[in-house]
Automatic annotation (TrEMBL), chains A, B:
CDD domains reported for this sequence: CofD_like (cd07186)
One Pfam family named in its UniProt record: CofD
UniProt name for this protein: 2-phospho-L-lactate transferase
NCBIfam families: F420_cofD
Keyword Cytoplasm: no
A GO term, aspect molecular function: magnesium ion binding
PANTHER family found in the cross-reference section: 2-PHOSPHO-L-LACTATE TRANSFERASE
InterPro entries referenced in this protein's UniProt entry, alphabetically: CofD, CofD-like_dom_sf, FbiA/CofD
Gene3D superfamilies the record matches: CofD-like domain, CofD-like domains
Amino acid sequence: MIVALSGGIGGAKLALGLAQLLPPEELLVVANTGDDFEHLGLAISPDIDTLTYTLAGLDNPELGWGRRDESWACMETLAALGGPDWFRLGDRDLALHLLRTARLRAGETLSAVTDDIRRRLGIGARILPMSDDPVRTRIGTDTGWLDFQDWFVGRRAGPAVRAIDFAGAGKARPLPAVLAALAARPRAVVICPSNPFISIEPILALPGMREAIQASGAPVIAVSPIIAGQAVKGPTAKIFAELGTPPTAAAVAARYGGLLHGFVMEEGDEAAGIAPRVFRAATLMRSLEDKVSLARAVLAAAEALR
Amino acid sequence: MIVALSGGIGGAKLALGLAQLLPPEELLVVANTGDDFEHLGLAISPDIDTLTYTLAGLDNPELGWGRRDESWACMETLAALGGPDWFRLGDRDLALHLLRTARLRAGETLSAVTDDIRRRLGIGARILPMSDDPVRTRIGTDTGWLDFQDWFVGRRAGPAVRAIDFAGAGKARPLPAVLAALAARPRAVVICPSNPFISIEPILALPGMREAIQASGAPVIAVSPIIAGQAVKGPTAKIFAELGTPPTAAAVAARYGGLLHGFVMEEGDEAAGIAPRVFRAATLMRSLEDKVSLARAVLAAAEALR
C-alpha cells in the first residue's frame, strides 16, 4: 500500500500517475480538508474534488479546477440575481456539492460520502479526507485573519501571508481508515508536490498524524513542488518568500524536518543542505506520461529506501 | 389595491393579466406556501417561483413550471452520481434556490427574499408569501400521509386523496404586509383560478386570514379553475372527485362558502345553486390577450360589486 498525502492540483497529478502504476487496492490518497468551507449553504471540499475529478478523468484542464465540459448557467443567473459569484461553481460541479451537502446534513461522514462518490465515478484507488472533523485554514495578513478561500479565491492570494493557522486541527481526529493504513506497514508514505504550508501541513497538524507516519516504519518521501525557485501552480513560492525564506526545493525539504527519508526533486536544482536522501527526477507534470514517469521515480525511491 | 390569492400556474396567469391592467403599486399577489419544501438542502417555494417567473416573463411555457431557456446539466450529473432527481431543478432555477436558501439561513424572512428577487427581476407588482412561518400541505391517502411534493411530483398526484392537512397552519401568522393591505380598504380580494384544496385553502387556513378578508369590506371574487367539469391543469378535478363531489364550478364556489361576493365562471357552465353573484367570462387563458381579458372581467365584477 502507498499512502499519499495530497492537496489539490499538483498532488492530484502525481496521484493520477501512481494510480496508473499501482493496483487500485494499493493506493490510498489522503486529501487535505483545510481548504474546505461552506458557501451558499454548500459543503465545499476543493482538494477532495480535484483529486476525485482528476482520478476519474473528469478534471478541467483549462481551469485547473472543477469539471470538464462544464457549463455556467447557474452562476450567471446567480450573478444576475445579485448573489455572490466570486467562488465559481459550474452546473455539473454543483451536483456533487448538492449531493455531498445533503448527505452530510443527513448525518453521513465526509469520508463515507467521498468514498461513495469516487466509486460511482469509477475510481479504483481510495480517496479519503484527512479527517471527518472540520479543520479550517486561516491566513494571517497585515490587516487581520482571513478564511482561506476568502484569501485564496476572493482576494486571489494577494495579501501577504504573515501567519497560517489551522483552526480546529487541535481537536480533529485523523481519519481512522488512514491510521489503519499507516499501521498496516505501507510500502511508502508519499508527500505529493503540494503546497507544504496550506496543503500538507494541515494534514500533519492533526494530533497523532506525524507519530502515526513515523511509527508506520515506511519510507517517507516528499516530492518538491518548487522547480527552479518557482511553484508550478499556486502561491507556494509567494508564501515562502513572505514568510522570509527563499523558495527553493531545499526550503521545502526543511519544512518537513525529520519526517522525510527521501526527497524527489528536479535535476538541476540545488540539493545542498537537504537532509533526507535526494532522488532526481523530472518533476514538471504536463502529460500523463510525465505523471507516470514521476510516479515511477517515487516508487523507485521507496524501493531504494526500504 | 387588488389583493389576489394565488397558487401556481393558473393563478399566475390571472396575476399576469391583472399586472397588465393595474399600476404596479395597486397589485399585491399573495402566494400559497403550503407546497413549499426542503429538497437537497434547498428551500423550494413552487408557487412563489411560478408567480415570479411568470410576472417577469421568464416562465417556461413548455413545462408549465421553472424557467424559460433552461438547461439541466446539474440534474443530469446528480442522477449520474446516484442522487435524487425526481424533483427537477434546472441550472438557472437552481441559482434562485441557492440564493433564497442562503439568505433564509442567514436569517432573512421568506417575504424579504421574495420581495428582493421580484424587484431584481424587474417586477413592479408585489408578490408575497402568505406567511413567513412554515406551512406544509400533507395528503392523506389509503396508505397513509404523504408530504405534498412526494404526492404531487414524486407520485404524479396518483394516490387517491382521502384528506388534506396543512401542518403548521394553526400557528403560522398571516404576513403582516398582507394583513395591512387588507386593512387598507382594497378595491377587491381576488381568489385566482387555482386549486381550492391545495392552493387557496392553505392561505385561508391561517389564523385570522378569513376574518381579515371579511373585515376588509372589499368584494371577494373567485374565478373558477373548473371549466366544463375539467381542470385546465393539475389535479383539481381529481381531488373533487376523490373527496366525493363532482368537479363543477358550483362545487368550487361552495368550497369558499360565505366568503365570496362574486364568482367568475365560464359561459356555458351550470350556475344553479351558486350563492354569490355570478359573472360570466372566458376563463381559459392561453394567450396574453386571454389573461388580460379575464383580468378585465374580474375588475369589472369588482366594480359591479362595490
